[in-house]
Write a structure and sequence with these properties.
M1 Pyruvate Kinase, Domain 3; Pyruvate Kinase, Chain: A, domain 1; 8-stranded parallel β-barrel; elongated
Length: 837
Amino acid sequence: MMYQQSPMLLDDPATRASMVSLSEGGSDSFKRKCKIICTMGPCCWDVPMLVKLIDEGLNIARLNFSHGDHEGHGATVGRVREASKQRPDKPVAILLDTKGPEIRTGFFKESLAGGKINLKAGQDLKLVSDYDFKGDETCIACSYKTLPTAVKPGQIILAADGSLSLKVKSTGSDHVVTEVLNDIAIGEKKNMNLPGVKVELPVLQEKDKKDLIEFGVPQGVDFVAASFVQDAGDVKLIRDTLGMRGRSVKIISKIENQEGINNIDEIIAASDGIMVARGDMGMEIDIEKVGLVQKMIIMKCNAAGKFVVTATQMLDSMERAPRPTRAEATDVLNAVLDGTDVVMLSGETANGKFPEAAVATMRRICEQAESTLDYKSLYLNMRQLVLKQNMGMSAVESVCSSAVKACVDSKCPLIIALSETGTTARLIAKYRPESPILCITASETNLRQLLAIRGVIPILTASFQGTDSVIAKALTRAKEHNMVKSGDIIVAVHGQKEECPGASNLMKMVTVYAADCRGFLWLTCATMQDKNASQDATAEFASKLFQKIAGAYEVLSDSERRNMYDTTGCVDSEELDDEEGLLHAANLFTTFFGGGMAQDMDAEEQVLLDELLRMTGAFSFQAHSSRPRRKGRGRKKAAGMSMEEAFLAAMSGMPSCEVTCPSGHTLKRKKVDGGYECDVCSKDIPDGKRFFDCRKCDFSMCIACHKKAESSAKAEEEEDDTDAEVFEAFCEANLHPERQGGRLGFRCALCRLLLDSQAEAAAHLAEAHAADLEAVANEVRSELRNGYGGHGTSSSGYGRPPDDFEAMIFGAAMEGMLGGFGDMPSPPKGRRARRKR
């Protein structure tokens, strides 16, 4: 793999202008792509300072377990989460950095003043493997028991962060004789490094295991940074130690020595992320090679789609000064240009005098570096590299790559990714789009872990049911933060199978609409494929529906009024003769349950509803295709019958209900012993030819308990997939025992409203699209067959809804239209509404 410098637009006029202009400061914004880790310490771990750091750009809080205890770190975690609650739009992740395998010098004799020894260049210094030995200027202890067999004459040993250099002269069975190469006064328990030597120590010491099991997992840390990882086996050991309870924790492997560099490919494959820990690395390998190793590791992580952290002494001078050195600023900028996902501050925030200024400076450098990149070239280079290395790419990665290309070609301001595990967002970020990636996830853990991915802005959703509504909700959030505006076109990536992780296989372009008409325009586009509808007209229509649905929610929240509504279809007695009534207040449901457009049917009869229910009058249904304007309100107010009954009866066809006696007289029946008879000729009416005479369904037009008339044609008998069968399942699914005794049948308010909503929405669209009304009606039937008619969670796919189900639906619908499509309840996933005999 050949290293390639990130392409930059240094000759671009805007870039040149930004390079010579003075920075205006400012606060953190969504435009920054590179993330920032801050190490927690006494200078920054109080809540007010943490809030300031979050405002300046803190994304991940690092806990250094080389210092402190569980109680102290636990208090820090609590303060970080308390500060994060004050900035709900800016979550903060927790990183546990293990102490790892260490080699340290021992203690000195008590007689030594100040606990230090003075060493002179050229003198001999003996290192013994007995760690209980108390040392002096001639001999000190070392914690690495196999040191005598690990080193050879001529090798260099470094101590005290490289401030002491020792050259091996000879080795014995339990000691090593070295030559001191520089003058120094050194204290007790200083760290030691063995450059070029594979240290035979487990990646997790007993303390590390205790830290992970007793602190990391119970506290719910998001990342574990493992020190001195040397191969993939070390990563596996860490995963095994975390166990099932810690399976969601992301592992960051710290590359700090030659062995880790040699095995970098297998370590990247086994890890979730990589940290270039330049502190110990600078002592383990030649210092002039550290920069090259950093670039190599970043490039490999970018190609593999794994996030990479660049750490150690990035703004070291800001521990003492409010401004960094020029070399430090250049170091941070080059790391961003190389492609690092995250930059880290250590002592600058833990012990420094200017933690807030250090974070602000880091953020501004990142933003400046990102503004000069040629993102189109970055995409092309990454795509070419992936295809060359892998001879192709997976289906999910192909979709994500195409999404970035569409964003580049169309200059889209935003990419929205629906991701259960975060994989989709990571693959999109791999191709380095210029636009921010708004990732919607249902997991708070994934939300925080996505803070390590360059360019990703995670937001939380309650459910992925209804991808269009989830995307609309994300667009509302984006508009609130000025990421997009009305009229913009964005790219969305998600899977066709909702809540199926790892199956993102769909990329689409979405137009950002105004909030007041977005819901209805979405419905219009989805059903009619007409994107030229008047926004003024739809906004007015939506406004009226808002008022209706607010009233519906109020009624369904009142048990007495709801009971009257269930039994009569009206809110109170005054509304019995009203033309519209509350029965039609929920027509907005169609928007959220999808499709739902039905042809308006006109029901005519010669008697009132109460007479009809007593079976004393004639009844007929007629479809008027020539009617120019349809309001979807069902019958005339004198009829006293809702659109639900008319629609249901017309769709089912009433196969066994004839309205004439055997002699052909208009049927006006009266009940006699043993059945009914015609009151004109007094002839008995044969069984199976009774109109609304089923005690089982209580006049609710359920055909599940009726038999087809013997005179039905054979074709009708074989018509298993008709609308009648759809409504058979619909009626059967909604026979709720607590609704018995109502004049209009057993169906609850929600079932009634679902049917009424079909007609209202269809009527509105029919005004502009009369020619396509039949196609819309077919769409309704299809969706009803696919399960939109029922609800519940029983084993058969249907069941009794919760007591507050209707109110919950209304509340969700109101939130959706007024606030950007809330999370909608889903139709049942069990038995389909359409059944075969």
